[in-house]
Amino acid sequence: xxxxxxxxxxxxxxxxxxxxxxxxxxxxxxxxxxxxxxxxxxxxxxxxxxxxxxxxxxxxxxxxxxxxxxxxxxxxxxxxxxxxxxxxxxxxxxxxxxxxxxxxxxxxxxxxxxxxxxxxxxxxxxxxxxxxxxxxxxxxxxxxxxxxxxxxxxxxxxxxxxxxxxxxxxxxxxxxxxxxxxxxxxxxxxxxxxxxxxxxxxxxxxxxxxxxxxxxxxxxxxxxxxxxxxxxxxxxxxxxxxxxxxxxxxxxxxxxxxxxxxxxxxxxxxxxxxxxxxxxxxxxxxxxxxxxxx
Length: 294
Known about the structure:
13 helices, globular, hpI Integrase, Chain A, 4% strand, DNA polymerase, domain 1
């Protein structure tokens, strides 16, 4: 089977995350099924015309342009690997172009709403669960780290004296992210309260459940959505929205785009540049409010 060696390669040598491996596996199995059912061919026999038909098949099934683009990216990596292993002579992806996806601005919650949430004594109490929930929101908004990075944070990754935290990002790449003073104080208060819980199943991770277990993605997502809905009526309220909010706030305050790229752990500047659109929209709003001819 061609898929398994490829997955082993990107998992062990490329160090792709479990989430990425799952997505690649799903994409490849879907294309394998299409080739088998439609043409009675295996993956190694795929040609340009087969991939073109697959794109048409996906579009007929109302699969979005961005999802199709991701699936094609998976196939590009897969057939590039097969070429390198000399299993095939040339990639069927050479002339394939992904359908253009409509550009969507990142959704974010403005600073005033976030301040009103995090500073509210009515919403957050001194109980362990409440302090933990607040730390989840404060860390995501105050550092811009990803959901998976938050879940993987260990107590040893926090440097209270340097006001920084160490993040293990995509591809197992480490980066250092500064913390605000309020976040550092919040971490200290949380750790003190955590030590009083006497968890017998103590785990290394910084933020844990009420029983002292490691968080899961669904817990964080539900927590973030519950609290953000108290200050925002936006339909989309997720941990990634807080990452967008962090980046947008930095850009609006004049931060250098390359610096934001490093803080977010983006591999390329192109991924960071999407936030400039939000900044431009903010400038347009200010212009309309302040200019006499607007």
